[in-house]
Amino acid sequence: EVQVVESGGGLVQPGGSLRLSCAVSGFTFSDHYMDWVRQAPGKGLEWVGRTRSRAKSYTTDYAASVKGRFTISRDDSESSLYLQLNSLKIEDTATYYCVSPSIDEGFDVWGQGTMVTVSS
Amino acid sequence: QYVLTQPPSASGTPGQRVTISCSGSSSNIGRSSVYWYQQFPGTAPKLLIYKNDQRPSGVSDRISGSKSGTSASLAISGLRSEDEADYYCVAWDDSLSCRVFGGGTKLTVL
Hints:
Number of helices of chain A: 0
Number of strands of chain A: 11
Distance between the termini of chain B: 29 Å
Structural class of chain A: mainly beta
Helix content of chain A: under 10%
Order of helices and strands of chain A: EEEEEEEEEEE
Shape of chain A: globular
Oligomer: heterodimer
Number of strands of chain B: 9
């Protein structure tokens, strides 16, 4: 069974840091690109960033809104994805989803999301 | 605010055919595949269409996608009450080097 499970969300003050984790099972993690996507309460989806597979040299891309503050990493040996969130702002408050995105194929998997609240 | 433009709302009656548009530019829809997601409140999105017009296994054949130039559309035929949800288009933007979502369309079944 394919599973994607996020953890690490919580309440943090503006300017603070948090590290989200995503544990994957049921598919060959190392072969897949992985994204983080977030959704602020009552708002639409916002792509946060991507790490590509080993075949693509683990290259990363980020949305302009988080570039320089957030860092995506992966551990293929543990089938895990991470998102380091630094210099958090109130507008970073959202549910963060770990995603194995469809890249011109039907395989597309989302976790249940983990909530990050940035508030003083 | 959103690079891809979707109407904020759409509606139809049971049995009708509804289309949702997604407008972009030459740097995103014009050169990249378009994907469509369905999302119910409190749940993660579900992929409905990939590579502009392909349905993943298990997605109803009432769902179809198309793309022309810098615009794409999602069509739902034989509308049912359970189709009431939010729908999002997304594509890769080569100029921004990021994936860009539309703002989402809330579909109401009257």
